[in-house]
Amino acid sequence: MQVSARGEYAVRIAVTLATGHPRTISASSLAAVQALPRKFAEVILGDLRRAHLVDSVRGVEGGYRLSREPEAVSVGEVLRAVDGPLSEIRGRRPEETSYEGAAVNLPRLWVAARAAVRSVFDEVSLAQAATGEFPVRIAELTAADEAWMPR
Amino acid sequence: MQVSARGEYAVRIAVTLATGHPRTISASSLAAVQALPRKFAEVILGDLRRAHLVDSVRGVEGGYRLSREPEAVSVGEVLRAVDGPLSEIRGRRPEETSYEGAAVNLPRLWVAARAAVRSVFDEVSLAQAATGEFPVRIAELTAADEAWMPR
DNA sequence: GCATATCCTATCGATCAAGTAGGATTCAAG
DNA sequence: CTTGAATCCTACTTGATCGATAGGATATGC
Lengths: 151, 151
Known about the structure:
Two copies of one chain form a homodimer.
Chain A: H1 5-20, H2 27-34, H3 38-50, E1 54-57, E2 63-66, H4 75-82, H5 106-121, H6 126-131, H7 136-143
Antiparallel strand pairs in A: 1-2
Helix pairs in contact in A: 1-3, 1-4, 2-3
The first copy, chain A, binds a DNA duplex through helix 3.
């Protein structure tokens, strides 16, 4: 479940927009407050705009704002907008894989893994990510000390 | 949760070894039966050997076999041996991330996502992956039609 | 018309992924 | 004690992608 710099930046930008909603915030302001490269932030905001997750306003006093309410946008949507699909197996969708011999059951495993990832990123809204009030299922996942240990 | 070609190949090789356990199987035989490049398979088997997941025997009649019983090796271990950690956020471990402002709660989200991935790959053994008799929790994840749909 | 934004196109260096090449080394069987 | 089949080691290539930057065209409010 590798999240690229683009993905991380996009979510940071999105939760910042969620917190300021419905005010519009400029790219330089977003970049400054989250300490990321301004030009790169512009590129990412372009991706989010083309995915219809944010609206943009040009000119002085312009900037970006979420297209929908922060409660109605999931983190998964943001990540998909900038990186592609949440889960890929050697560049293919899990359900598109197919194997011979001892590996015939692997597609089910890949699909299960994707479902697990979705159950986190598609079930957390930008509003929840901003406030830290995660759904119970998500909170439970982070409750065990073990979840915080590298492996 | 991107799985690279190395990762996919490694798991396919591992379940093949699990099925043949405890016989030793040569790299060319593994490559042939799973239809993957022989030289690349050799590289991957080297990774698995250095991770102490497989033992190798040189010479004629040589080959590879699992170091432990197929029930005692998880898919997660195989994936970690060839790609690195299951989950990384911009190249860092989830628990090592840290943010200012609206993004302060994101580390919990990253940790939750990693926990979700682990709950699949670390809970499925090579024996289960080979037979298709997955744990109930995993089977449930693949039961819904929705799990098989792209998004 | 000027300051401040977004927006568009192009480029760049570094890194990595996937795979290949060639051969040195090991070992059992005959 | 040779031979053939296997692991193992080092190096290389090729292409794509990632993370960014540059420079300016375009829009907008005052």
